[in-house]
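Q: Could you predict the 3D structure of NOP2/Sun RNA methyltransferase 3?
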Amino acid sequence: ALKPGANLHELEKKRQGKVQKRICQVVLEHFEKQYTAELGDAWSRVRDVLTSPWCWQHALLLNRFSQSPGLESSLAEQGYQPAFPAALPYLPAAFRCYSRPAPGRFPAQKHQPGRLKDYYLLNAASLLPVLALEAEDGEDVLDLCAAPGGKSVAILQCACPGHFHCNEYDDLRSRWLEQTIESFIPGPLMNLIRISKLDGRQIGDLQPEFYDKVLVDAPCSNDRSWLFSADPQQALLRLMQRKELSSLQFQLLRSAVKALRPGGSLVYSTCTLSKAENSDVINLILNSCRNVMPVDISGMARGVSQEFTFLSGMQQHELLVLPERGRAWGPMYVAKLKKVSSA
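A: Sure. Here are the predicted structure tokens for NOP2/Sun RNA methyltransferase 3:
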């Protein structure tokens, strides 16, 4: 803690100290080899951003359930602008997100029981899966891997589902999810929300053909945070176990397909650049589930092409956000599928 009377120079030094995280060399070497092969020339620009936390940006998703007069004008004064253009295929009026080109983050709000927060701080790219999902009022919606809860909160900024099921298998993360929901959603709406700690791989069998929309924001290699693993041994273990993630992701997706009603759609997302956890998993589902079809999301990608940089050469049903200077959002992979009939 800083001593009373600490000057601004000390405060700045403390802030810089926090920013100067140490890059984990074993992870960087692993990524270097894989992503040079998968991304080509784009990798050096992406690496430049991922290894420079001082150039990272944060967006604010405003909470439509809290009254915060003056917040939007205050954001405008500080250079914040709407993060998403109005010309998107799906952008509900109540959905308000702000960002600015300058790095740094707006002050976070502390959790206070009984008091709703005014905004959620996030990586703007993490809202693309929610906009791709296109939840509508009255629909039955499942967020299969919901913690820490940012995407669940974002879905509720877009629509008022008839039934909203937020699931998180991990005990600690589930408590985090509960606190997030409690911080953003008013009491009366809580009756529409079910929070569970089920194994996501089993929900399709437990609730077959129950949901209109399913979001699978899958456990993945979190490239941004893995690069700053404090413990090299843990980092090595993660890299060894990384190969098993695509199997888990495939099982979660298969469960999501079972949980969908015919005609319903699902969005799959990760925050990794890894092809094995992205396109490969989606292709496996498309090849093994005959009742699933890809859904074109290129209209959304075109609509936000000024705000985000995408990897070229992707299929129309998928996109991959690449972080770059001034647009340091992502990594974020998004794919959309539709269930056309019962199995």
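Q: Anything worth pointing out?
A: The first strand starts at residue 59 and ends at 62.
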